[in-house]
User: Fold Glycosyl transferase family 2 from Labrys okinawensis.
Amino acid sequence: MWESFWAIAGWLAVILAVISLFGWTVTFGSTLATFYLVFKHWRLRKAGMEAERRLLAHGLPTEAELPDVVVQIPTYNEGAMVARALDAATALDWPRERLHIQILDDSTDGSTIFANEEVARRRAQGFDVVLIHRKDRSEYKAGALANAMTLTPHGFFAILDVDYVPDPDFLKKTMTCLLADPQLAFIQARFDYMNRDANPLTRTQAVLLDAHLAIEQGTRCWAGHPLPFNGTCGVWRREAIEAAGGWRGGTLAEDLDLSYRAWRIGRRGSFLMSVPVPGELPETMKAWMVQQQRWTKGFGEVMLRLLCPILADGSLSLADRLKAAMHLGVWWSGLAWAVALPAGIGAIVLGAPLRWELAGILVGQLLIGYIALFVFLRAGNLSLRPGQTRLSDFVREFVQVSRDLFRIGAAIGPAQREVIFRKRSEFVRTPKSTPAPKVV
Assistant:
């Protein structure tokens, strides 16, 4: 009996060891990709920022020649934020007769009443503002954007989530770039944060997003890699949206999906590091988990839908296919960490062959992974906010970030499983700190 038990345990240990080694191979590839992006960022940063300055210096046509721009503000049960969003939209420095604002309201609570009142106020002031209310929420944000496009003939769409507040020169800067280069499909501005220092969790998110925006988005733009739209704080060219097949709600990441479809037909985006747009970060762990679960699932859905077709697309160069694979394939690294670590520990406990070597690999991979994370985050911090955070202070922030990432890693497990088993789910908006309106 005991012989059978130990025989089974031995085979199980070997299987777990193989699974662990495979997982560590995937995570090591992701680690190398992280170091590559950091290296590439510092190599290209000076030239990239200079190219951005030249693009912004092109200037706009005369006011009479400026095109019509539609500002789209999607909202769902966030009526209390509509007033602030409309204040920012109507303050944009663009000819009033060529500025059109759409509130894309899929609300199911009293928010629509509140939003209608705010829209009526702005219309009385002479602004072209409309509220487009849908009752079915079909295809979620993608459906709202696609539906609103059919209601206007204009050629440029600025997309701003309701919690983002652009500066008045936002349109002038982004449209300068779009009009200077007809091949650009969209311009993506950089997120900034109104509540960065609200609590330790918002500081964690700011550190993570700074690295994402600078090291990932900035570097991809400068290096000619596929650049994903972040879903807000950007301006799209109508012709590019339509040529790529329009907004589609088949995934929870309609922004990433459209970006890659546009990229496959030769339309690229550009990222503006020097144009910040402040917005709200989730202030509770529960709200952040909701956001991260949606982002994780949406990214995974797009990866499953597009990665294989991209790799098989002979019209793309091998280099372009590898660049896309490096980006989309990173989704597997999080799952690989979640599998490789417990599998490795299980193999060691069950006495797998070469278990001490396996333990060394496990410890080494954890150490290298944490070094890569620190380098990635510190590089983003130094690139966007040079001189603002001393190394000793950043180390303390990194400890907090590590704790928060451990908690979020456990929370996104269900989203990863739903991607693998192709289970559809609702688009759940990130809860906002601004209270909902009271409707009497």
